[in-house]
Amino acid sequence: MNFLDQMKKRYTVKKYNPNGKIGEEQISALKEILNLSPSSINSQPWNFIFVNGDILKKQLAEKSYFNKGKVLDSSHLIVFQVLRDTESFEKQIEENLPEGSINYYNTMVKPQGETAIQSWLAHQVYLSLGVLLSACAAMGIDSTPMEGIEPDGYDVILNSDKYKTLFAVAIGERDETDANQPELNPKSRLKAEKVIIEA
Ligand SMILES: Cc1cc2nc3c(=O)[nH]c(=O)nc-3n(C[C@H](O)[C@H](O)[C@H](O)COP(=O)(O)O)c2cc1C
């Protein structure tokens, strides 16, 4: 199947098969793929926590509102986090990035102030969400991106200090009765003519 067809078939899973486990080889590939995500100036202000154990999954499910069942029945939950404070981010880039990239940050991003810096950092993490969802589509892995979680509750459970949670993605195998699959609930999008503009 070509990539366009894979993207037509992917969808947000609402009900997982609790017995559908993703193999270690695919999980390792997803880890490497996430680590390859692009980011502005190669800033990489993120952490990706792979949760596999039942106890932790149950605790996080309690902080996942209407997404509770998806977290519980998924094979793995991936929690996407961003560096909590700007100072640690600046230290990280000082240690890892070439001078030109640091200069870009100091002249183009930093002068915009704390709120804009935090927003810019979060944008980078969202890019990696796109990478993961596309990779899952290509690999035949079902997924659910979830902002409908309690990030502060996640941070307490995960003992997150340096990083804070932004969102999570459940991955696994759809339940065959899942009513959201495109065969039962066709994809709904704005018309391409409205969104894709030829200039
Ligand atoms: C950042 C983000 C957060 C989302 N949060 C949730 C969520 O908490 N629970 C849920 O069931 N779906 C969630 N969704 C799924 C969207 O509703 C879904 O992607 C959109 O309706 C398009 O449908 P499709 O993914 O099935 O093509 C989220 C999607 C994104 C990209």
UniProtKB/TrEMBL annotation:
Q: What InterPro entries does this protein map onto?
A: NfsB-like (IPR033878), Nitroreductase (IPR029479), Nitroreductase-like (IPR000415)
Per UniProt, residues of the Nitroreductase domain are: 8-172
Q: Which UniProt keywords apply?
A: NADP, Oxidoreductase
Q: Keyword check for NADP, yes or no.
A: yes
- Highest taxon of source: Bacteria
What CDD domains does this protein's entry cite?
NfsB-like (cd02149)
Q: Which residues cross the membrane?
A: none
GO molecular function list: oxidoreductase activity
Q: Which family does it belong to?
A: Belongs to the nitroreductase family.
Instruction: Write down what this protein is called.
Output: NAD(P)H-dependent oxidoreductase
Protein source organism: Chryseobacterium phosphatilyticum
